[in-house]
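SAMPLE LOG
Freezer: B-3
Tube label: C17
Construct: single chain, 399 aa
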Amino acid sequence: MTSITKAKNLSGKVVLVRVDFNVPIKKKKVLDDTRLVASLPTIQYLMEKGAKVVLMTHIGRPDGKIVASLKVDPVVERLSELLKKKVKKLETKNLKLSDAQKLSLLKDIEKLRPGQVAMMENVRFSKDEEKDTGTLSQELAALADLFVLEGFAVAHRASASVSGIPKYIKGYAGLLLTKEIQGLMKVLSSPKTPFVAVLGGAKIETKIPVMKNLVEKADAVLIGGGIVNTYLLAKGYKIGDSLADKAFQVDAITYCKRKNVIKPLDVVVGTKDGKKVRVVKIKKTPHDVCKKGEGIFDVGPETLRLYATHIKNAKTLVWNGAMGYFEQKPYDVGTLTVARLVASRSKGQAFGVIGGGETLQAMDMVGMTDDVDLVSTGGGAMLEFLAGDTLPGIHSLEI
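STRUCTURE (predicted):
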């Protein structure tokens, strides 16, 4: 990929930037501006170089229809505050533009001053966005001189505004995308050892491909969440109401039997409301872990002590996925303990990388996000990258 910093003579050029500003909005206000802040360096760089900056994002899943609550206006307002400069909203309706509307949009873009920032309407208001159908990517490319992919979180999407536009105009990597790729490449290509990965969460189908790749590279893979439950189920343990995926039982056994995959010694079981809780040791032979009405909702204290020894010795750390149902006390202990351990070891003793919505939420809960070397903005994209998959957005930028 070519970084946008390598592009020359940007002054006066129209630069179309695909950001990921898919942020929570309530009562026409942005509730969390983390993703906006993460992209400020790229936007400010282009402003300083005198480019006419046109931003594109999606918000939610409008499925090709105009949804009033998913319009970009609150994002435009918050971004203007962050940049301390008014961001212009470009009226693009549902991006199915007539010739007259295209001409009007082009004129609006031409009127932008060098260094000015504008934003188009939610790109998913177009039914052609998500699967890059029709002529949308071509029409978007016709609006600009060059393209920048900034949002790593959408790099795994083969969408018109992600991998489609660079088919028609030169594409560059934004500063955030470059930072994330470099950080993840450091983990995959040249990790300092011991390399420790922590994998959990509820979506087993996204974690199994990552396990397949990381068990060949990591010195230890510490597991929690649905992966553990699925493994125990496959081995014949009675796990009650625990979250598991029967479709991945064979995969769970295949990868979890590896010596470098470290499994829980004990688990916290109880009712979903957290009112009845107990710790159960996992014996070598299958047994009843849960009684009727119980499920596995966290890893136990012995497991945390074991996991702590691995994390405290790590030189490279990757964490994606909660250890259990951390949204409900007292099942938050495992996840928040791992968060503190990973953050405490990062930025110095180890190179630490975290990603995924619940992982970032847990790190925010312990107030240690700034202590981690790389906080990936892309949960799904990070997992696919770590699984060794080719990401369409990144592939489209390759020279």
